[in-house]
Amino acid sequence: MANVDGAWDCVIKSPLGDQKAVLTVNSTGGSFVGNMTGAMGAMDVEDGKVDGDTLSWKMNLKVPMPMTLDCTARIDGDSITGSAGAGAFGSFPLTGTRQA
Fold first, then answer.
1. Domain boundaries, position 51
2. Number of folded domains in the chain?
3. End-to-end CA distance of the chain
4. Paired residues of 48 in beta bridges
5. In terms of domain of life, where is this protein from (predicted)?
6. Alpha carbons 54 and 97: distance in angstroms, whole number
7. Taking a C-beta distance cutoff of 8 angstroms, is the pair 85, 2 a contact?
8. Global model pTM greater than 0.70
């Protein structure tokens, strides 16, 4: 299993511009807990899963409108790449690096 734990400086490229946030990951076996905190507030990770070097999770967005984001990301060393799915609004690229 890849080392997925830590704090990740992330950017989600959304229609509202680049959304910078910190994703925290604390894994136990095939699951993880954590949160994502940025300018639009904090969201807890829900249903966090770890499969090798791949994470998947959901977050309930409150601003600018309530919706559930379905996220997946792959860890490669100190880099994270993936996407945040926003239902009918599409999917937005997620990239980032592990904090030192």
1. 6-98
2. 1
3. 20
4. 32
5. Bacteria
6. 15
7. no
8. yes
